[in-house]
Structure formats: C-alpha cells, structure tokens
Design a protein that fits this description.
heterodimer, A: alpha/beta, 5-stranded parallel beta sheet, 4-stranded parallel beta sheet, 14 strands, B: alpha/beta, 6-stranded mixed beta sheet, 22 helices, about 15% strand, globular, binds iron/sulfur cluster
Amino acid sequence: MLDYTKKEPYERTALRVNPAKTCQPVGAMYAALGVHECLPHSHGSQGCCAFHRMFLTRHFKDPAMAASSSFTEGASVFGGGSNLRTAAKNIFEIYNPKIIAVHTTCLSETIGDDLNEIIKSIDIPEGKFIVHTNTPSYKGSHITGFSNMVGSFISYLSVKTGKSNGKTALIPGFVNPGDMREMKKIARQMKVPFTMLPDTSGVMDSPMTGKFEMYPKGGTTVEEVIELGDCDQTLAIGKFSSEWGGQTLQKKCDVPYKLLSMPIGITQTDNFVMALQSISKAEVPYELEEERGQLVDILIDIHPYTYNKKVAIYGDPDTVIGLTEFVLEMGMIPKYVLTGTPGEAFENEVKGLFEKYGMKDCQVKAYGDLYELHQWIKNEGVDLLIGGTHGKHIARAEDIPFIRAGFPIIDRYVHSYMPLVGYKGGMRLAELITNALMDRQDRDSLEEDFEMVM
Amino acid sequence: MSALEKVLDQYNSRVYKNRKEHMVDIGNNENDNQIAANVRTIPGIITQRGCCYAGCKGVVLGPIKDALQIVHGPIGCSYYAWGTRRHKGKKEEGIDNFLQYSFSTDMQEPDIVFGGEKKLKQSITEAIDLFHPSTIFICSTCPVGLIGDDIHAVARWAETEYGIKCIAYSCEGYKGVSQSAGHHIANNQIMRFVIGEGDRQIKNKFSVNLLGEYNIGGDGWETERILKRIGYEVVSTFTGDSSMEDLKNAHLANLSLVQCHRSINYIAEMIEEKYGTPWMKVNFIGVKGTMETLRNIAKYFNDAELTRKTEEVIADEIGLIHDDMAYYKSKLKGKTAAIYVGGSRSHHYQFLLHDLGVNTVLAGYEFGHRDEYEGREVLPFIKPDADSKNIESITVEPDKEKYHLYLSEEEIGKLKEEKLIDYYGGLIKDMPDGTYMVDDLNHYETEEFLKVLKPDIFFSGIKDKFIAQKSGILSRQLHSYDYSGPYAGFRGAVNFARDVTMGIYTPAWSFVKAPWKTAPILEGTLGGE
Ligand code: SF4
Ligand code: SF4
C-alpha cells in the first residue's frame, strides 16, 4: 500500500501527488443544487459535468442532476455561445427548471467565453432565471467554486427593497445536508428567522417515496434568494466557503455580515449560538444547554482514551479548522493539519489554535497533498487519521485507525445525513473518534489484557 | 402510441428529429433497424456520456500498473480518475504498481497564460526522482490542447534526458463526442510505441491476447483462470492488471480475443494487419455465452486434445454452479431488465440475464458506434463526420520479421466467411423484435422509458442509478458492479445472480409506502359518533 512514498523530505514544485482538493465546478454544482428547482449547468465539454455528477452522487448516494454545454472541437475554437443558447432552450423545454445556474470549466475559461454577454443574448422564458459564476479550476479548489456560486446567486438575484424582512441570511458553507439541518435546528431553537443559502437538505438527502423528483422539496427558493437583500444581517459560516457570499450581499444590498467559524466542537458551537442570541436576544433554551452539557459530559468520560492522542487531519479548510479545534478541546494533539485549498489564512488560523492550546510540534499546511501528509506521518506517526475517503490508503499503509469526516466520502454510507456541527455533531464525532481508538485497543491487546468493560 | 413515440412526444421538432434517429423499435420501423450513433450530444440534454480524456486515461491506460501516468492539466481531471474505476491490479515481483497514486501538474493560472510545458517537465523530473518509473504516460486535458503545450515534444525530451519510455496522449476532453475518441487515441499510441517491442518466449501455441478486458471486479482474472485451465497461454490482457512488458509482447500471440469491441477494435485490427494475428469477438459474460466462446476459440485452434479439454472444463465448471444457477433462476424468472452502460456490457449482459430467465426490454450504449449496434457489416456505410475526422486514424503495414500466421491463409479465409473471426455482429441480432435500442439515452428518456416499460431492474452507471431507485426500480451499476464481482465466466455468473436476487428481494422495498398512506382512516373519528 503506497509503497513508493518515501520518508525523506523532498521539495516538489510541480508534481501534485494524491491531491487533497479538486476543481471549482464540483463545488459550484453542489451549491446550485441547494437552490430549489435549480438545474446546475456546466459550460464546457461534457466530461467535466460527468465527473462532477459522478462525484457528488458517490458522496451523497442521491442523484446529482446537472446539464452540460457538451463542447466538441468546434465550440472549443469558435466559442461556446451557441452551445449555451441551445442548451438553455432545451433545458427549459425538457426539464423545466425555475433557474439554471451555469458554471464555467477550465475549457470555457481558457477560451474566454463571456458568460455575461452570452446569457444576455438568451431568450429566458417569463418567470425563469439564468445565473452564472466563473469557476476556472486552475485557481482555488472546489471550495472556491462553492463560494463563487453562492456569491453569484446573490449578485444576480438578491434585491434590496428597503423594507427589512426581519430575517438573517445563513450561509452554511460546504457541508452535508445533515449539517445544514442541524444549523437550521439551532437557529430555530434560538428563535432567529432565517433564510439559508444554499440549502441542500431535502435535495441531496431526499427521502425514498417511489417517485423520482427532478426537483425535490428542499432548497432555497428563488424568491428567498431575491429577498436576501432585505435581511438584517448575514451569518457567513466558514471563511473559505461563505465569506464571499457575505461580502457580496453586503456590497450589493448593504446587509452587514458576521463571519463565524464552522460550528464544530464546543467553542465554535457556543459562538454560533451566541451569534444567534445577539440577533434574537432570546434565551438559550434548555434543550440546547442540555445537549451542550451532554457533550461536555461525554468528553470528560472519554478523556482517558483521547487525551494526548496524536491526530492527523486533512480536508476542506473550514471543516478542518473546526475539527482541529474540536480535537484540541478533547485534549488530543492535532499533529498534522492539511488542506489542499490554497490560502495563507488557513495556516494562520490553525497556528492560532496551536498557540491557544500550547501545541509546540504540530504542523499545518495549506495547498498540500496527501503524499506529503503521508511523508510526515512516516517520520512521526499518529494515533488517528481524520479526513475524507482518500486517506484510506495512508491509514492502511501505516496501520492507523481512521475516521471519515468531510468531503468526499465515497466508500461509506449514511454520513451525509449526520451532522458534524452543533453539540449533536460533537457527540457524533466524539463517538466516532473514541470507538476508532477503542476498537484499536481491543484489536491490539494481548488476550490476557482483553477487557470486557472499558 | 409505442413506448418510443410516447417518449419522443415532448420534444420540440429539432430535438425530436435528432433523437428519433437514435432510437429503434426493433423489427417495427421503416428504417431497417438503422440507428444513429457516435454523433454529438445535444447541449443541455443531460447525457450520461463522459469525455475523450475519460476514455483514454480512465478506461484504456488507467489499468496499466507500471506506467506512471501524469495528467497534464488543472487538478480536477486527475482527481476524478484516481481510484474511481475499479480495475484491480496485483502486486508482482519486479513490476511497479502505481495504481494507488494520482499524478497531476495541477496547472495554475500562470501555467495557462504562459504555457505549461516547463511545469510538465519539472513534474517528470520530480516523478523520476521519487518513483523511478520505467515508463511515464502524459495525458492532456482540455485547456492544454487550447494553449498548445507540445506534450509529445516533452515526452521525447524525457526519453532522451532520462532513458525511460515516455508516451504522450493528446486526449483533451473536447475531442470527439464521447469517451470513444479517447479509446482510439490510446489505441493508436499503444500500437505505435508499445506492441511489438517484446521478445518473450511463448511456450504454448495456444496463445491468446485478451483485448478489451479491464478487470473490473476481477473479471479478467476469472476469465484467465478458465482459459489457463483449458490450456491456453494468455500473452497479454488489454489492459486489466497489465504491465508494459505484457503489452509489448502482444504481437506474439496466435489469436486475439476481443471482449469490449468498441474500446479496442483498433488494436485488434492493427495487430492482425501488422503481425498476422486474427481476432475473435468473444463474450465471457453468461454461462451460455462463456460456453459458446470457449468452443469458438477451440474451433479456431482446431486441436482434438484442446477441444476435449474445453468440453471437460465446461462440464466441470457447470457442474459446480448448476444448483446455484437453478436456484437463482427460480427467483428471477420472468423479470425484465433495461440496460444502459458504456459499450459492450449492454450486449453481453443480456446473455447472462437470459440464463436467469430475465428478458431485456431496452438496451443502449453510451459511446458505441453503429457497428456495436448493427454489426460490422455496416462499417462501409458509416460516413465520417467532422468530429470523427478530428481523431487520428493510423494505418500499419505487415512487419517483415514478426508477421506470422497460425493458420493457413485458406483456413483463415474460411473462418472469416463463417464469421468466426474478424467479425462482430452487434447488439441487434440478439434482441428480439418489439424491444428497444437507444443510443446515448439521456436523463429525460431514462425517466420516461422507465415509466412506460416498468422494468424490474435498470442496469446503469452511478449518475442514473439513484434516479431509477428513487422511482422504485432496482438499479445495479454495470460499470462498477456496485463494488461486487467478478461477474465474468461461470463463477461470475453466480455472483451476478446472487447480487440481482438480493436487490430484488431486499425487504426495504416493501416499506416504500408508509402504512398510513394506504390504511383506511381510523375508525371512530368520522362523523363524530
Ligand atoms: S472534458 Fe476536459 S476538462 Fe473535463 S474532464 Fe474531460 S478532459 Fe477534463
Ligand atoms: S477540466 Fe477543469 S473543470 Fe473539468 S474536471 Fe478538469 S479540472 Fe475540473
């Protein structure tokens, strides 16, 4: 398993080996699926669209619907305008979405298609919409694409009428439907009226009914996106996936935004709850306090198994920052922390956490890859690996317990229904982490040391 | 209205005309069962097709385990092809295996603006330092073709600079209309730079290549097991669990067996022209299919002992699975299926389903050409269009030293006439009248056909799998076998039968409707008695 990965450090400047990120459009597609009756559309050759749909489907085990401009060589030379016009006509006629959300690909970006101009030249049926975002994959990552699409929905659609609707715009970041449900639950408990954009709950975790729905019940409606302009404030959750949306709404409609970290673990969930409280001035309901107390109780109960255990965490920046803080709260050592998405802010934020918890020999890297992470682990091992599916080879090669958290998880089921965020998400993570460590202890113990009670 | 008309009904006239040509109500049309295939997808139609890169890197090159494959482009293309196709590959002493790795130049904006050749060269240098491969492949993706990086020049540079083998594939995604273009591009380069270079000692005159077998779920291993049991020597498999060394020696075999016709027929033909090895279309899917194939191969080699051994192995293998197959057949008999996957699987699996008493009511290919549907007799009538002309076609000459015939010209001529070799009859001849054949089945058509035909099972890929399931129809992926397998050969047939049976009989289906949806309203609440 990964036999060629060397222990000795080696400075690479060009070759990417086992990436910890992917390209922008898949993020844009995911964001677009969180708008009700929206059909994402990939402007480029159809391979990208096929790959992105395949990936989202594998993670969510639910259909990820999206169309493509299906460029062939001609369009690549002469521009894709006519492909997009034909596509829009066909899509509205055959699939009848309320809105088409177009994102570009490397191809259409490289030839420089001007989407603004092309969309202006399209005859959009009454009451329907087309929006677009630019997602060149030679910049950023799927997180950038997600964030760009959210921003584009706002800049195309949101309108300020001058009359407040008393709501808060909630931008949840690149998370699972299960997380979005949990954030909505907490916002409701805190009595904050809100609109969440995007909201893939009900779309990418839709129930089995025996009937396929091209546009399932979930998702932010177009009307709600329009009315975001009348919100009183935005809570942008996760700097990397949501700040751009917050900024855009502020610029366009004067809605101030507050940036929060992903509410993973106690501190950040507390911050989320208090941010909501400062909006509604409502008291924190006992149910939430109870959940919080349960989580703290759990962490104290399990500390003998988690304390000072070394962890390596990789994945998307907002999620990884959240996971890092949570394992610190658990008394674990986040020995290696890595994301594939470029951005210095990530390293600074994680270093801040290291400092806060007095961590001396921990390492962080943005714009890294799993080959490098594996090299670090070879040099000094860890007790646990946390991240998406692609780490499974490292876990096996180094015989490290492994829990899956983040995106993508393409080799397990149910994860997308379950939250990582909120106190409930914390309980789930605590269970996953402890069980992984205890399973290992059981597996490794001598027969005479094998305990009934632990 | 036929099912077909019902489906077409909602299209506007332009789409209607286009799509109608891609659908055949078999035996019930004025068009002599002719179908349109391998032409452009309609933009916006929600096709399940992929791209040229996917066909080249993903399908044909991906399984070659000892070639370090660098995808030159932005990160996504390489990321998506990393470990997502199930071609299994064993570790072998002395042969590299890079299947667990993904290599990319991860192009950034400056590389797109100023050209990426420098970064590609540096990547090769780094790959050599870290991995010491004997072979490097370079695959280009969409933007690379546009900015004009000369990956072939870089490959030549790498060969002189490092004394390794380096082959470049210009398989940008926008070429052609589907994965098919990529198969062709991969085939051409392998023919040019790989096949014919080896000089392995072939020990057995009953030597074959297994072409178009990618070892999904271990299919290739199961097929090889049977062939070896009978007494064949498998010289090379293209490209499931293969190494460069095997591929280099392919010209030495006495017969090429073609499993997936579309992705590899170029190589099969060129090997015959250049080295004299004929090819035979085979099918190792299904009990009867496998039996017939084994008998056909024996017929070609025309050796009494081999024929006897073939019958002995068939009898033995069937004896081992007979009871299981009978059991599963009793569970599945009378069910119907629809199949929409890449190439040959939509054809092959009908045989296996038939073994189990399941009839196929609709079948289609994602990237097939007319010959996969109508048979090779239509080849002279296929007019090349602009998209297919853009894909290079290479011609080869007989190799003076290495050309060899196992049978006499006369015998070969006879077998050709019997259509035993160098022939593929296509899907249509095995589908009864009144069933449907649809090319490039899109999302809308899938939904509509499923509604009208109501098959019990829909065999598909990942993108359409959950659409069927949400509509209450079992779906199994035939690209990946839903991570089961092998499905090939005799033992594979049992695996397949087991998987389909458990899918159909899974208790969860009975819970789809909540009981209160169908129960009479509670007594006593009516009328306020
Ligand atoms: S269409 Fe082009 S960019 Fe898209 S996956 Fe294929 S090669 Fe990559
Ligand atoms: S071409 Fe670009 S957008 Fe398409 S899959 Fe590759 S990296 Fe992603």
